[in-house]
Amino acid sequence: MTRQEYIAQLTAQLYDLPAEEREAAVEYWDGYIADAGEENEEQVLRELGSPQQLADNIKLETESAGGEAAAHRQHTPAGYGEAGRAGGLPRKKLSGGMLAALIITFPFWITALAVVGSLLFACAAVVAALAVALCAAAVGLFIGGVCGVGLSIVTLATAPLEGLLGFGAALVCLGLGFCFLAGGVEFCAKGIPVFWRGLCWLFRSVFQRGGAER
Questions:
Q1: Alpha carbon 136 to chain centroid distance?
Q2: Residue 179 and residue 121: Cα distance in Å, rounded?
Q3: Is 159 left (phi over 0), alpha (psi -120 to 50) or beta?
Q4: H/E element holding 46?
Q5: Is the overall model pTM greater than 0.70, yes or no?
Q6: CA distance linking residue 99 with residue 165, whole number of Å
Q7: Looking at per-residue confidence, does 93 or 72 come out higher?
Q8: What pLDDT band is residue 206 in, cutting at 50, 70 and 90?
Q9: What Cα–Cα distance (Å) separates residue 4 from each residue in 8, 40, 70, 80, 142?
């Protein structure tokens, strides 16, 4: 039996799983068999057993975990690693060729990681600087507005026109201060969390993909 025939039968045996769970399971085990190479394909298929046996193991692990949320975890690459340890199913191993490639290309990917890390740090610094700048501008405008109101009141007694102009300018400063304050609060409340969630999603995607490849 070839890998394609095995995966086709496995897909048919998993017909009663939700489509998303079935696709995740089929994708994982198809990649598992493919990574073994054509020379080891027959041995891997023997170790896995028949498509019916593998499908039964997948369903058993899903049912024993309990609940739809646990089932979802079992059908992720990380979940299959746990299922392999608990139920005797084999795990993917890092081949010698892949390890050698990682060692040989170490200067390239470590440089790429450094560049990506620097860019992320720069983005975080820009976000933090923007938040600080908005707050500092708001504080400065408030201080200038309050001082301007006091000075214009004193000036009204001797120079009414200048006092009125100064009072108007002070009110403009106070208004701009409120605008910058509102912008800073909005940015801190929404912009920073969005940036943080995006950063966490990026790292989670990279490490989950790395775990799946192992």
A1: 31
A2: 28
A3: beta
A4: helix 41-48
A5: no
A6: 74
A7: 93
A8: low
A9: 6, 15, 29, 20, 71
Residue 86 has pLDDT above 50, yes or no: no
Q: Find the angle CA(13)-CA(16)-CA(22) to the nearest 5 degrees.
A: 75
- Separation CA 66–CA 154 (nearest Å): 76
- pLDDT in the model for residue 67: 46
Q: Is 119 exposed, middle or buried (0-12, 13-18, 19+ CB in 10 A)?
A: exposed
Q: How far apart (Å, rounded) are the C-alpha atoms in residues 155 and 149?
A: 10
Amino acid at 118: S
Instruction: Output the six-digit token pair for 92.
Output: 């993917």
In this structure, the number of other CB atoms found within 10 A of the CB of residue 205 comes to 10
Residue length, the chain?
214
- What is the Cα–Cα distance from 77 to 26, expressed in whole angstroms? 11
Mean pLDDT score across all residues of the chain: 75
Q: Residue 145 in contact with residue 177, Cβ under 8 Å?
A: yes
